[in-house]
Amino acid sequence: MAKAEDRIALVTGANKGIGFEICRQLARRGLRVILTSRDAKKGLGAQKALAKEGFEVLYRELDVSRRSSV
Ligand SMILES: NC(=O)c1ccc[n+]([C@@H]2O[C@H](COP(=O)([O-])OP(=O)(O)OC[C@H]3O[C@@H](n4cnc5c(N)ncnc54)[C@H](OP(=O)(O)O)[C@@H]3O)[C@@H](O)[C@H]2O)c1
User: Fold this and answer.
1) Which of 22, 35, 52, 58 sits between 20 and 30 A of 4, alpha carbons compared?
2) How far apart are CA 19 and CA 21, in angstroms?
3) What is the CATH architecture of 4-61?
4) Whose C-alpha lies nearest to ligand 1, atom 36?
5) pTM score, whole prediction
6) Euclidean distance between the first and final Cα of the chain, in Å?
């Protein structure tokens, strides 16, 4: 299996709840995490919260119910 830092995880609905915690735990394990949310303001807030904990994750806007967004 690839090393953790070579793996990329894209997490949907990640501005809060289970998605947010998944981002935190995968980042802690050293994966490259892309935190996504349908609301950019909320998602960027979540990205900032993780950065304060020392986890650098990327951010992208993503609404799973809109084909164009996916
Ligand atoms: N919490 C539990 O104990 C538990 C147990 C079993 C199953 N589940 C299920 O697991 C899922 C997540 O639970 P949760 O507790 O983390 O829920 P949550 O705190 O309500 O978070 C749901 C996340 O999904 C996002 N979302 C909703 N519609 C979306 C869309 N069209 N595109 C992208 N993101 C979207 C929400 O964004 P907004 O903030 O913009 O609304 C939010 O970030 C739910 O389906 C829930 O029913 C939860």
Assistant:
1) 52
2) 5
3) 3-Layer(aba) Sandwich (3.40)
4) 13
5) 0.95
6) 27
